[in-house]
Amino acid sequence: MVSHSRHVDILDTTLRDGSYTIGYQFTADETALIAQGLERAGVNYIEVGHGLGLGAARSGKGAQAASDAVYMRACAQSLCKSGFGFFYIPGIGDVTDLGLLADEGGAFVRVGVTLESLDSACDAIEAAGRLGLEVWANVMKTYAYPVKDCSEAAVRLAESGAKGIYIVDSAGGMLPAEVASYARGITRAIKEKGRQARVGFHGHDNLSLGTACSLAAVEAGCDIVDGALLGIGRSIGNAATEVLAMVLERAGYQTGVNPWYAADLAEKTIRPFLQQRWRHSSLEQALGYAQIHSGFLPLLEKASEESGIGVRDIVLSLSSEARLNITEADANSAAAAARGKANAVHGKEFPDRLDIQERITFPELARAHDSDIAGYATEIRSQSLRMARPAAIVVAGPWRPDMHKQVRLQQIRLMDQAVVGAIEVGNATDLERVVAEIDGKIDMIFLDKAPHVADRRNLIEKLELRQWKSGMLPYSDEIAGLIGACHMVAIAASQIGAKEAEVMGCDERAHMVRSLLPYWGIGVSEPGASSILVIASKVENCEPKLHVGLKLIYDLMSGVLNAENARKFIENGVEVVRLDVRAALAGEVIGLLEARKLTSQVMGRGEICEVPVVAGGAWGNEGDVVVDSIERPTHVLGIADGNGGLKTQLGESDKHTLERVKRVLRDSVLDGLGEREVERQVQ
């Protein structure tokens, strides 16, 4: 490892550039927590606020979770040594925003600059300087201008009072050598004019070069580079602060940033925002490759929709002038060029790339042979490992006592929360064998209680007393199916303008459907009076009848319909639909998994710094603090009113208690990062 005496600052922009990723929705509490964590990690410059800077929400650039002033106060109250600042684009914000930043304790402002608007940028720099702010000039889309032009502009910006000039790779497409060329040119020009100004680099990671470009910038003379925790930022994102600290340290530079503390902070605070977001798409990479700012995507998407050409192909057909600006005409012209290019290369033999992309989707996974139960469970486990989700199987009973007695394996489903299979076991004597064959191969077994089958219910009660390798939860296939049926009927009713549905049947299932439908806003009609007929069960000497206005029959595996009468209804324009429990099964599985998590990890009562706390629905006595989880609390939800709710008005004692618990939770997140997992102070 080479050792340098040179210090390089890392400016963290998690709370500003990262806000693009979450729709500008960092809360004031999150801002305070993350800012304080960054300070403890050794970051000296912390940029916060709306992605487009001061005044952006007011200017219609997207609503944010809190006002600029609230973000400023959150930082001012939580930071001791590090300075916080905002981005500022003249025309989006105004001078009063700069004054607010100075008044609220802001240390710096970075002014977004284009070479076409140097005059207004210089005016803003001078105004911010008079307010006592440290001012930086960020040359947006630096790659769109020659090095010579940027160097000359940098001198003028420094003469106006900018303490530093930033090279900005807005699209994330610059190569390390290109960044180094700009850094050397700007540094040299500033020196030759006898000016004192630092040079920095702000990159994006569309071509996965954000960190490499930052290192190249430092080696070429820059002494400050930008990062964000886990790289969170617009488009694919930025270089990761924690990785930048590691790389610069490996290269021998001094940053003062503890990379491992920053890494733990990122895991605790930022990872939850990114778990459901896949950022490395080929479209985002194309934006980097063509050096097109992601802010132009709405125009390009509109051209794609109108032309039928994929957005990526349109991006790759744009001219080099588009690096700076794109009009609707430019987007349409690029779409036409992409269409011509595709026809010239592929002729009529190949489908459009857009069509291919639409066809390549994850289908529902194949169903195994009914006799291979162990193989079915193994396949579910395999898919769960591939997709990093739990493996589960629903063991369901028959919907009617007279239904099939065989074992049937259903199609495996890939869901957001789990990979789920379903096995229909019609005969109670097969139940124990099936459970034994799948036990240990999957994470969770959902056992259908099937209350109308007594011998099955008794066997399940015995099975539940035994020790199994897989987790086991009770499940009701019938209830799930009936709720799913109500969902489907309600959706169909809204589509055809129906307010009521007729329910055929006299048993418990029919009564349940009649009781449930009103909760979906669907009334129960007299026979022959509705456009929707739900067949819940057989009625002796009664058959469903065609009548004027009947549009839909929804059959709940009743055994009433057969090939002949179903065909008659269909021929007369009535849609006939049988119960499909896929959506219902998904909802029930998700609900059970969440309920299990709630009862085992979230619900309970305890104390934090001798203050009683409750979570997860545990009834709180008046004055108890309600937190988000008893096992791993991170947020305070309010003060219990003793009646099962939260107080709407807090006294001074309540406010003091609330702030006390908040402070302890915030400190428990930050203390010990980079060393070991912090033990919660819940007893």
Describe this structure as you would to a colleague.
It contains 24 helices and 23 strands. With about 675 residues, the chain is an alpha/beta fold. Helix 2 runs antiparallel to helix 10, helix 7 packs parallel to helix 8 (about 210-220) and helix 18 (about 430-440) runs parallel beside helix 19. The protein starts with 8 loop residues before the first strand and ends in a 13-residue tail after the last helix.
Describe the protein's topology:
Layout: E1 9-15, H1 18-21, H2 28-41, E2 45-48, H3 68-78, E3 83-88, H4 95-103, E4 108-113, H5 118-130, E5 134-139, H6 147-159, E6 164-168, H7 176-192, E7 198-202, H8 210-219, E8 224-227, H9 241-250, H10 259-269, H11 271-274, H12 282-290, H13 297-307, H14 311-316, H15 328-346, H16 353-359, H17 373-387, E9 391-396, E10 407-409, E11 413-414, E12 419-425, H18 428-438, E13 444-448, H19 454-464, E14 471-475, H20 477-496, E15 500-504, H21 508-516, E16 523-524, E17 532-535, E18 552-555, H22 563-571, E19 575-578, H23 582-602, E20 604-608, E21 611-615, E22 625-627, E23 636-639, H24 652-670
Parallel strand pairs: 1-2, 1-8, 2-3, 3-4, 4-5, 5-6, 6-7, 7-8, 9-12, 9-13, 13-14, 15-16, 15-17, 17-18, 18-19, 21-22
Antiparallel strand pairs: 10-12, 11-12, 20-21, 22-23
